[in-house]
Structure formats: structure tokens, C-alpha cells
């Protein structure tokens, strides 16, 4: 009998693996609704849905491996990173989905959330004031009008699987919706910016690197306290706090 592996678990959701089946348990069925709808719409490979019985969604494992994890070294050839970039571009060129998506929040909402989070980080002694202030300045570059695209919304490096230089599957679509394409690129290369040129070679169009860096700072600032609350450590080498320190 296959063992049960806890992939991730916190008070909002959990993902378990049993053999080649992943069981996603989520207290918010709206997130699962978004995930199911997004996978039915995107023009890139996604996991096969095996069955759904709220609060559980069962999906099949996708073949291949990831290019790495935020908390570890990256792998893969430049061609593999470029292939990931080409798949991301294909997603961004797809017709806009009906769901707004977390990455599609208004600029005013982002400014308010970012200001509150920066104040809390400093007030509670989570991060030094100079680090927060500098990254808040960098993050300003993301707070500008953008043309909405179909975005994944949480395109971590661990969510894209490849076999050689072929993308075999992109997972975890619960944050998908309309948003800034550069947010996805920033998320995918977070902690691995040395591969950004390879990703953009496959993406195949000019982008504003300053905006990508701005989204990296913004995402990291917003993530630190939430990660701690969910039992993760953003101070691990190569993770969010290191990303923030790199801007100093």
C-alpha cells in the first residue's frame, strides 16, 4: 500500500499524496472552484482531475520534475528555463478568464495592503525599518496601470514541471485570474533571478525588468508574516527575506 505523504498542511488547506494521486483539502471551496475552472481554460498542460467531492479535489500527478524550489538550488538547462518562459507566454496570451484573480487586485487595494503590511513588519520587529523602507520604494514600480492577462497568480518554481526542455504540467491554479503578466514572471524567478534572462528568452517579448524586481519586493513584503503564521520560515537562505536583502 502506498504511504500518505503530507505535501503541505496548515489551518486553511492541506495537500496529501498517495502514490500518483494528490488530494487537496480546502476550507474555501471558492478556491477549488477557481482551480477547476482555470485548468479547463488554460492552453498549457495541467493535472488531470480524477474526482471532486467537497472539500476534497483529487488530481493525478504530472510527469517530470520542477526546476527547483525557492528554498533550494535551481536545476535545469537554459533550454528548460526558456521552455518554461514560452509556456508562461502562452498562458498570458490566452483569452481573459471570468475570474478576477488575486494578482488582479486594484492598485489602490495593493497600496493599502502594502502600507499596512510594511507598518506591521516594522512595528512588530519582524524586519528592520531600513530593509522595509527600501523594498517599499522598489515595490512602487509595480504600482502602475497594466494590461490584464490570464495569470496563474502563484507561479512558484515548484508549480511548473518539465521533462527535459518540455513543460509537462503546471499545478496549483487556485489564485488564477486576470492580472499583471509580470507578476507571474517575478513569482516564477523569485530567489532564482540568475535564470531570468533564460526565461525571458523563451517568453519572447521585451519586458520591464524593474517592474519584475518591483513585484518580487512587493510579493516578498506581503508574504513574510503570512508564511510565519502558516509555519514556514521566510528567513531560510534563498527565500523571501534574502530577496528583500538583495535590494539593499
UniProtKB/TrEMBL annotation:
Keywords: Transferase. Residues 41-204 form the Aminoglycoside phosphotransferase domain. PANTHER family: AMINOGLYCOSIDE PHOSPHOTRANSFERASE DOMAIN-CONTAINING PROTEIN-RELATED (PTHR21310:SF40), AMINOGLYCOSIDE PHOSPHOTRANSFERASE-RELATED-RELATED (PTHR21310). InterPro entries: AGP_Transferase, Aminoglycoside_PTrfase, Kinase-like_dom_sf. GO terms for molecular function: transferase activity. The keyword Magnesium does not apply. This is Phosphotransferase enzyme family protein.
Amino acid at each position: 500500500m502506498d504511504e500518505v505523504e503530507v505535501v503541505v498542511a496548515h489551518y486553511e488547506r492541506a495537500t496529501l499524496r498517495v502514490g500518483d494521486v494528490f488530494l487537496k483539502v480546502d476550507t474555501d471551496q471558492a478556491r477549488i472552484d477557481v482551480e477547476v475552472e482555470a485548468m479547463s481554460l488554460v492552453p498549457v498542460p495541467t493535472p488531470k482531475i480524477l474526482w471532486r467531492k467537497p472539500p476534497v479535489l483529487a488530481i493525478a500527478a504530472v510527469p517530470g520534475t520542477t526546476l527547483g524550489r525557492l528554498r533550494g538550488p535551481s536545476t535545469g538547462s537554459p533550454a528548460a528555463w526558456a521552455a518554461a518562459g514560452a509556456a508562461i507566454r502562452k498562458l498570458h496570451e490566452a483569452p481573459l478568464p471570468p475570474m478576477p484573480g488575486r494578482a488582479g487586485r486594484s492598485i489602490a487595494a495593493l497600496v493599502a495592503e502594502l502600507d499596512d503590511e510594511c507598518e506591521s513588519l516594522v512595528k512588530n520587529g519582524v524586519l528592520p525599518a531600513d530593509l522595509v523602507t527600501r523594498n517599499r520604494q522598489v515595490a512602487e514600480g509595480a504600482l502602475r496601470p497594466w494590461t490584464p492577462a490570464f495569470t496563474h497568480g502563484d507561479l512558484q518554481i515548484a508549480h511548473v514541471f518539465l521533462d527535459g526542455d518540455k513543460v509537462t504540467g503546471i499545478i496549483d491554479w487556485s489564485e488564477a485570474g486576470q492580472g499583471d503578466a509580470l507578476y507571474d514572471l517575478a513569482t516564477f524567478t523569485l530567489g532564482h533571478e540568475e535564470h531570468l534572462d533564460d526565461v525571458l528568452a523563451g517568453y519572447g517579448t521585451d519586458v520591464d525588468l524593474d517592474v519584475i524586481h518591483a513585484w518580487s519586493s512587493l510579493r516578498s513584503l506581503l508574504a513574510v508574516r503570512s508564511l510565519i503564521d502558516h509555519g514556514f520560515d521566510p528567513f531560510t537562505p534563498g527565500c523571501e527575506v534574502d530577496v528583500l536583502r538583495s535590494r539593499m
